[in-house]
Amino acid sequence: MKYTITDLSKKFDLPASTIRYYEKIGLLENVEHINSRRSYDDSHVDRLNAIECFKKALLPLDEIRLFFTYEKDMASNADKILDMMKDQEAKTLDAIDALQAGLTHLKKKIRFYSLVSESVKNNSPLPKWEDVNP
Amino acid sequence: MKYTITDLSKKFDLPASTIRYYEKIGLLENVEHINSRRSYDDSHVDRLNAIECFKKALLPLDEIRLFFTYEKDMASNADKILDMMKDQEAKTLDAIDALQAGLTHLKKKIRFYSLVSESVKNNSPLPKWEDVNP
DNA sequence: ATACAACTTGAAGTTAACTTTAACTCAAGT
DNA sequence: ACTTGAGTTAAAGTTAACTTCAAGTTGTAT
User: pLDDT band for position A134 (50/70/90)?
Assistant: First the structure.
């Protein structure tokens, strides 16, 4: 199956400029140019799927590219890939922990300012932070 | 209690340049300058604590600053603050979801490349992705 | 034939959140 | 008095991941 850049743009909800950028930095390879237009196939769809997954794990684009070069000779590079993935797993877990702490903080603020808002509507005394979040 | 910039730098594990930067962009206010040196007090410690919490929730610095200005008249601004926090709560939850999806992807890669690594050591045939992660 | 939309290129611009640099001041210790 | 180390400033530089721009080309519809 063949795809234009607009096909992929829609499929992955990425601007065409981003897809060209990924090619430029070596994340997308072997892109055919037919009539001076880019033409992609399913290998590129797979690549973009993988890229999106890695991006969700916060892997930087140059690490993603490194992964793809390792992957070409995965027998020799399995251990390097494993290190990379385990490293990133730890970072991703840390990021989740930080987000969860942040979320807890937000929830406290939401609880407190809900009461503040209520008090204002009722002309009643404002709550104190320590009373709401002891 | 009074603190030098180095005290805060150590306490929050932030470079002094970052603390100066936060003052410059209005996140830290009313910093005394004694003998042309910055001198902080507990209100600044509280501020930095709050900033760190919001940063964990991915709130951008200019939103954090906006929060602090709203907070000065919290009775009038409770609803604005609530909107802001609820908005950010949704974004933070989305970010957690994305990270968890990313984590799942990493774990699959780790499973697969562990087997690849084993196979290489045993001179046995390499696994297939579909067999490992069906 | 002509207009138009979609695509092309390389280069420059954008954004957030810092970081670095250069040149300077100041107080304390030897 | 002199050195050292911590702090000061404004301005410029950095990084990642794009995005925008200007100028040109191509295929299709009228």
Answer: confident
